[in-house]
Amino acid sequence: MIVYLNGEFVPKEKAVVSVFDHGLLYGDGVFEGIRAYHGRVFKLGDHLDRLYDGARAISLNIPVSKDEMQEIVLETLRRNNLSDAYIRLVVTRGPGDLGLDPRKCPEAFIFCITASIVLYPDELYKKGMSVISVSTRRNIPTACIPRVKSLNYLNNIYAKMEANLAGMPEAIMLNNEGYVAEATGDNIFIVKKGVLITPPSSAGILEGITRNAVMDIAREKGIPVEEKMFTMYDVYTADEVFLTGTAAEVIPVINVDGRIIGDGKPGQMTWELITAFHELTKVDGPLIYPAEGA
Ligand code: PXG
Asked: Which strand (E) or helix (H) includes residue 192?
């Protein structure tokens, strides 16, 4: 396995970062989890936009352009001969001293890891998954902005630990006002009377690339889409519930806190969106090996 490490391509064993890197010392940095399907990097432009916006929000100067960053991702995939892959692109504050002051880190540090994708069990998609809501609240935006996909994931890890303790695969997190925010690594959607509903960005969520793609697909199909606040009551009484994320794609939820959702099977609209999402992954994003595709 070859890793892109701040200007070089190195074998996995040589891919190491400094113990003085503020990404490690303070979680100071931003990252993206991206996927390649059928030789194309899905929504790469959107991922790069989110990465650079997040960097701007934390005053982190990324020393390469978006075009150069796109080439870093594509070249890392080529060096590993991958067409379907999971990609982890990370920009840290870089090495500094032991104080947390970001001004002590002269240059950001970039790395890109690509790996063959580990798929969720097929059964989870066919039967749907059970989840619980947890007591850990999503970070409040006035303290730690959830829209920034930062290296600070303790908030989500706390929630994941609660799910683990309960023997559940995912956790639904509420915001500090008690409205539904998102899962630990996925966004949440509910369907009620034919309307597709998901929390707005102002609920304090990471605006998922998969979330936005699913909303676009739904609108194209003429499905009414609403971004609005809702509570766990709306989840329990929804006709359908599903989660979206780069790793999970679109995954049906059939039980929440012991309440059976709808008829306990993945719903019609969820199936329709899963199918359309898979179609989109075949055609969206830049080609990794353009000569073969030309
Ligand atoms: N909310 C949070 C808090 C996330 O971390 C999403 C929503 C979905 O966003 P995207 O852009 O992926 O649709 C995420 C994404 C992992 C992993 O290894 C986690 C994510 C993405 C990729 C891998 O657990 N989280």
From this structure: strand 187-192
Give the closest residue (by CA) to ligand 1 atom 4: 185
Ligand 1: which atom is nearest the Cα of residue 246? 12
Query: In angstroms, what is the span from residue 247 Cα to ligand 1's centroid?
Result: 7
For ligand 1, what atom is nearest to the CA of residue 50? 11
The answer, yes or no, to whether any atom of ligand 1 lies below 6 A from the CB of 245, is: yes
- Name the token pair of 122: 């097929």
Whether the CB of 246 sits within 6 Å of ligand 1: yes
| Boundaries of every domain in the chain | 2-115, 122-281
> How far apart, in whole angstroms, are the C-alpha atoms of residue 202 and residue 137?
15
CA dihedral 248, 251, 254, 258 (to 10 degrees): 20
Q: What does pTM read for this prediction? A: 0.97
Asked if CATH classification 3.20.10.10 holds for the domain at 122-281, the reply, yes or no, is: yes
pLDDT in tens, 268-293: 999 999 999 999 999 999 999 997 55
